[in-house]
Amino acid sequence: MHPDLFALIGPLRALLNRLRTVRKEASAVINLLDSGPDFLLRGDAPLEQTDRNLLIDFARDHGLPRVSWALGTDTPETVCLLRPAVTSLSGTTVGPPPGAFLQATAAGEAAIGAQVLGALPAKLYARSRVAELYAGCGTISFALAPKVRVAAYEGDRDAFVALRTAANNPAATGRVEAVQRDLTRQPLSAKELGAFAAVVLDPPHNGAPEQTGQIAASGVGTVIYVSCNPNALARDGLLLKQAGYRLEAVTPIDQFLWSARLESVCVFRR
């Protein structure tokens, strides 16, 4: 854990013991952004004004840009915003939603981006496009953008809004098109995928069998699969193998220190 996050554990324990919104159980998610630790608290009771004041004081005392709260699985609300909650993804400023999925470490993020870029087809033309599936807030999207035009698909509304806002910023490259789409319920079809020079996907922990089946049928020449679950990767990779793809390279990235989890970047070619 980054020292800036580890330093919050003691004060956070003291805070949670004082909050009335925490009765039996709660969850705390803190993302270390460039602007500081971004804190999302999910409680199991309503948030009273006393709790709001405690959370605001906590943010001021410990340099947090934003504190958000939600009752259970409800949509979070902002309790306080002391400065923009932003971070840089490959040089593009992004404002992730509270509790957003980000890569575990900056070094791991950079390693994933480097492997994905290195696996792109050797011949890319001015009009070549890459489909990036499960794009999140744009971790891989903005790494790809300097080299190729990107159609970035994301189903989660809040992550999509962050991705689209960053992609539309005049300071960005203008080479990322953000598209909101639930790829589990409505995967890109083989016909749609045929328009792309390559497909990059970084699906949730359970993988992407519905979408991988369409990728396998598309005939797209290069598939770059980023995974944190070897079992799901093996299942989805088998679909690609059966469709005539060959596993050209696999790079393990140990960004989940002190755990058995492992990230990997796999390159499949037809």
Structural description of this entry:
α8 runs parallel beside α9 (230-242). A hairpin with a 2-residue loop joins β5 (87-89) and β6 (92-94). The chain is α/β, with parallel strands linked by helices. Helix content is 31%, strand content 27%. The relative contact order is 0.10. The longest helix has 14 residues, at 49-62. It folds into two domains: 3-85, OB fold (Dihydrolipoamide Acetyltransferase, E2P), CATH 2.40.50.1070; 88-95 and 101-269, 3-Layer(aba) Sandwich (Rossmann fold). The protein is elongated. It has nine helices and 13 strands. Strands 9-8-7-10-11-13-12 form a seven-stranded mixed beta sheet, sandwiched between helices. A four-stranded mixed beta sheet has the order 1-2-3-4.
- Rg for CA atoms: 20 Å
**Counting H and I runs of at least 4 residues, what is the number of helices?**
9
Tell me the number of structural domains: 2
Q: Could you state the CATH homologous superfamily of the largest domain?
A: Vaccinia Virus protein VP39
The H/E string reads HHEEHEEEEHEHEHEHEHEHEE
Q: Label the structural class.
A: alpha/beta
Main beta sheet: strand number and arrangement? 7 strands, mixed
Helix-residue proportion: 25-40%
CATH fold group of the largest domain: Rossmann fold
Q: What is the beta-strand fraction?
A: 25-35%
**How would you state the average pLDDT, rounded?**
95
